Amino acid sequence: MKATIERANLLRCLSHVQSVVERRNTIPILSNVLIEAAGDGTVKVMATDLDLQVVESLSAVSVDSPGAITVSAHLLFDIARKLPDGSQVSLEAADNRMVVKSGRSRFSLPTLPRDDFPMIVEGDLPTSFEISARVLAELIDRTRFAISTEETRYYLNGIFLHVSDEAQPVLKAAATDGHRLARFTIPRPDGAEGMPDVIVPRKAVAELRKLLEESLDTNVEIDLSASKIRFTLGGENGVVLTSKLIDGTFPDYSRVIPTGNDKLLKLDPRSFFEGVDRVATIATEKTRAVKIGLERDKVTLSVTSPDNGTAAEELAAEYGAEGLEIGFNANYLKDILSQIEGDSVELHLADAGAPTLIRQNDKSQALYVLMPMRV
Which of its termini does the chain have fewer beta carbons within 10 Å around, N or C? Predict the structure, then answer.
């Protein structure tokens, strides 16, 4: 195999695929990327960790001899990063080595044969639909902070996607770690009817979000079955991310969304966030609890720490129900408030022990539920 590629193209492509490759691998070939040069001048670069696979196509300056080889992903990425701007990079594979040349630089890297490189077999992906990259990015941003990191409850380690027929057919994305829940709803895309409920793993979500950043004005094609999902970004010469889905049952989260919370608190999300952030300064790592005292049109935030003393702050708010004291984990509350755009946030409360519903208003696509803490 011999191909010459613009450094900028090679670097962009490697930056997309190399982050899939784990730094430490017990299987040597999983540290490598597969580079495949075709006679028509296209070069495909692929990386995988056996659960997730990213393939990107790019146009080469020239392909002198077609072929395929695998080479260390992080090494090639670091080399490409350090080569001068505007240079061309020649990749030539022969005798179990790959020679990388650019200007006066020359590197000879060990390779492994392409036949040993594992591929994710997609099988049949019967559900297929398109969604705007911008909408998909927002769907991820509004929910992924609530994904659980507990390995024991592996079925919570991703974003749950499912369709449902309400007044209008919708596609919902949900994530929860048992302490908070985030849900985002969009109109159901054409072709998504009858799709299976799926849980997209956390790593796939993170890699997809990175790739979306460069193609926000395009559409993403999504193909899925009950066990695999494939995202195609940027059309023909784009990036294809394929991931296995989490094999588990996501809990019926709709049961924890409160419907009868009758106490409504409205205030500015930014000043609320900043107030919580300020008083939480003295909270010890373990507690991180902020107490919220509600009176008519006033909110008092307070934190008491056995080591660091006390802090309190008053905020103006709209509140007309009876007085209430409730405690929340400060970080969880800030995570949710940072998702609210606009100058008002609604908190629907019941009592100090019941989950609280948080949203911008009744029209918003995003909805959050936060469990209280004892304070």
Answer: C
